[in-house]
Every structure is written in structure tokens, then in C-alpha cells.
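Open question from group meeting: does this chain pack into something compact, or does most of it stay loose? Before anyone orders reagents, we agreed to write out a predicted structure and look at it together. Recording both the input and the output here so the notebook holds the full record.
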Amino acid sequence: MTTAKRIAERYEIVRTLGEGAQGTVYLARDLSRNGRPVALKIYARGGPERERAFRRECEVLHQLRHPHIARLEDWGEAGDCLYHVTEYVEGRDLVREARTRDWNAVFQLIVQAVWALGEIHERGILHRDLRPENLLVGRVHEREAEGVPERLRLKLIDFGLALGPGEAGAAPAGSLPYMAPEVLAGAAYDHRADLYSFGVVLYHLALGKLPSLPDGSFADYLEALSEGSLDLEVLRDGEVPRGVLECIRRLVLPDPERRLGSAAEVIRCLNHYEREQFPTAMPPPQVILPPRPTEAPTLKPAPGAPPEQILKTLLELSRAGKKREALAFAEPLLPQLYQWRNASLVADFLATLIYLLAESGRVAEAHGLLSRLYEHPALKAQPNLEYYLTGAYLAFRQGRRREAKALLEKAPEALLRKAPAAKRARFENYLGLCAQAERDFVQAALHFERAAEHAHEAKRRDQEASFSANAAALYFEQNRWAKAYLLYQSALGLARELHNRSLEASILNNLGNLYLYFGRWHEAEGALIRSLDLARQQGLKPLIAYNLYLMTVAEEGRGNPEKVEDYLRQALEEAEALGETEARLQTLLARAHFEAGRGRGAEAEAALGELRRAAEAADE
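C-alpha cells returned:
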């Protein structure tokens, strides 16, 4: 076990939070984020089984992005140990917190716990260790989730025993007082075992003690539990709200078929008896749209408008894709710029205008403005990172990657440390693009991953998704399958949250390719079919052809020669119709292999001949 107080040169251990069979959880300080508190779990190496448990927990956590589930922030290896980092929740467990609150507040916490359960069960995940200690309430050391901030925030933690999608629950696991009868009996079980555990948690919360069972051997205990011998008579109307009482009674039934069958059913049971009505799942953030204007808004700032308001208007126009209106608004203001004294506002205004000019094809004018990022009096007195970022952006646009890299390398370290997270994300992204152009995939992946972390900190989920997907693709190239898989899953979750169908299609295509490498044909087919549907909806022509080609590989792996032939035909037709030369060459080669494997020499030779002709035509 590593005994150093600092892990991965980033996390400084403060104290122990808890110990378990798999490892120890510490309160630590993230030195890369100004000492921000985190929960650091260290696994001692213990052979392949221990490493599999570590990777399974990381995979499960990485899929979950929910306001009431502790977020995975980092994972890796350091010396002789494996570690992962989650957000630190400073507070008490649900039962202890409930003792200090009225039932109105407790209802809110119960509902938050049920929402968290609903999220993991919807994703096919079983927690398997649901108990008060893993339902923490308190102040969370991260920014508030989108939507209305809550006074009390519950978080579901500790997925060390969790099972991911497709993993069968058979081996007993959990904490004895909260384990369902079918789990203790060694029978097969599903998400309803988690719901039973939550029923026992509610019992504990309502009465301040665990249910009493007859003393005796474990066999006696199991027999009593299986016969439904929990002491429910002590739960009386009036002392415990009727909705909570009914939930307990219907969750701790020994027969899983008779229990409340889902998180949504638990909420509906509460709603049936309580005055306040709760949504069955975490509601999305409320977005209030402004009324549609009856006429085009003015593109002139109000007389005497402060620079902050001017910059805000420019950024709003730019992010809305209104380039023409943004340029018309900003260009007349250039003479006023020398009166501005705030270096950050000057830099952001000029950088946005340079970007708009370049994207509108006015690259020479954009280059002319770049000099102002250096010559402006406010920026001479207080240099800004934007000079290096915008210069690199323009160099990239014109294919001058070496110039872009040289400019980025000149950026002072002090500027980087002080820069907002959004700018640090752009900086790492550009460095990743430079490394990728030089085929240094190891460094490129690291830069893209850092860019995703900074984008997450800046609440730029679109960039976080894109940067994560870029990093995953490069880890895939390095045969670092687990890392690639986790990042793809993270990017996929973000793309779905953002309803970015194009990005979702691309990520599903890459995931399908990854599944093919591992011979997971059924999962590959599911990912590729969904990617193909989205690619057709979005008109992503290259992706359509490439998906069809990968479908032939998946069906060949599943031993479906008829489907292989069908997909080969579709893939060739799509590639020819779309003019996708690379996809056509790949499909012709796959067709030659397929025909040869079927013992059809003449057909294989014909496919190879067509492949040679297509390759020669492509060279011309």
C-alpha cells in the first residue's frame, strides 16, 4: 500500500473517512484546483480480481451524471495502488440528518434518494449496498447543479459493490440488516433488491432503529426474513406519515414480485397519500424563454452602456450564430476600445471579433486585429492569455500548426494559472491538436482529457463532450481500451443531455467499433444501428457508409452470413452513392474476405479486382 501523503502529485491526503474490504477512502485536497476537498478511494493491489473490481466501479460511476449521485472526477494508478476520486460530500447520513428535520424536509430527502435510485436502475445498474451511510446529506463542494439550488442536497455514494448493465446478480453482497431475502438466500436478484434495502432504510429513518428479528442462527434469521417477519406493527398511522408507512410496507415484502417495482412506483405511492405531489424523476432544469420580439432587436448599444454590457451582447449574438448581426454591432465600436481600461474585457471583445471575421472569410482583417491584442494599452500593462489563444486559432485555420504550437509554448505559466477554466480548456485543446498533427497520440490524449476537465469546470458541456470524445479516440489508437470506453461513455451521456445527435451518432459509431475489437457482437450491433439511424437523420454521409461497413463485421462475428451479404450490398451502394472512396475500399476488402471465407474463390477474386480498380482510380 502506498503510504505517501500525496497521490499522483495532485491529491494531498487530509484524513481517513472510512475503510472497507476493497480499500480506504480519504478526505484529500485537489492541489490542481486550489485545494478543493475530494473523496479519494485507494485500492491496494490484490491481483486481477481486485483490478477488475476497481475498473468496474469506475465504469459504473463514469456513466452516472446526476445531481443526487456523487460524481467521479478522476481515476488512475499511482505507485503500487489504484485510486479514484469523487466529489466530497460534507454532511451526515440520511437517518442522522432526518432526526434533526421536520417531515417536510425529510420528504424532500427521501424523494432525492428515490430519484438517484431511479437513475441507476434505468441504466441497468444495481447498487447492492444501500444503507444510510451511503446516502449523505449536506453541503457539496462543487457548483450547484443547474436549476433551483436546494437547501439540502442528498447524494448516493459508494459504488464499490455495484453491478453494471448486463451483469447478473447472484452472489450475496451488501450490509446484512439491509439485504433482501433473495440476496441472502443466494438466489438470482435484480433492482428490486435495492428497493427492499431502501425500504429498510426508511424503516430505520422512521423509527430510529432497525427492524427486530428473532435471535438464533443465520438459518433462523433467513427463514424469519423470508416469511416476512419484520416487525411492522410498530409503524402506526399518525407517528409516521401515511405515504412513508405504505412505502415501507410495500418495499420490505419478501416476494420481489409483490414489492413496489421501480423508483417511479415509490414516488407514486408517496403521492397517493401525501398532499405534496412529487415528480417521479428528477425534473429537467426550468428554462424561461423570453417572448419573441415583434421586430429585430437594435444592434447598437445604449448610450453610455458599460463595457461589460457591450461584451455580453456581443457574446450572446456570437453564440446564437448571428455572425452578421454580431459584426454589425461590434465593428463600429472599435474606436471606443482604447477608452476601455479592463484588460480582460478588451481581450475578450477583440478575440470574439477576430473569430467572427475569420469565420466570415475575412481572415486578413482578423490578422490585422490580432496586433491590437498586443498593442492595446490595457493589455500592454496587463498581458492576457487571449493573445496566444487567438493567434493559435488563426494559425490553425491556415494550416500553420508549427506556428500555432510555438505561440502556445510562449504563453507565460502565470497567465495560465490565472486564466478562467474556459480559456484553459481552449489552450489544452489547441495543444492536443498540435500533438495529434505530429502523431504524438499519447500527449494529444492527455491534452484533450485536460481540456475536458477544464470545460467541465467552466460548465461548457458541449466542449466537455467533444474533448472527451477526442481523448477517447486517441486512447483507442493506443489500445487503452478501458480508458477509451469510459471517456466514450462520458461523452455519450453529455451528447444525449445536450440533444447533440450528430455527436451522439459519432460516439456510438466509435463505441460500436470498440465492442467489435472485444468480440461483443450484440452490443456492437446495438450501438451501430442507433448510430446509423442518427447519421441518416442528420445527413452525416461519411458516417452512414462507415456504419454499414462495421455492421458487416458485427454480423460476421455473430455468424449471420445472410445479414453480412445484405449489409455488404447496402454499404457498397451507400458508399458509391455518397462518393465515399475510403468506405468503398474498406467494404470491397471486407467483401473479398467474406467470399474467400465462404470458399467462393471466383467471387473473392472478382471483389479483389474491383478493389484494385477502385484503389487505382482513387490514386488518380
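Observations to bring back to the group:
The beta strands are 6-7, 11-19, 23-30, 36-44, 72-78, 81-87, 89-93, 135-140, 153-156.
Residues 203 and 248 are 6 Å apart (CA to CA).
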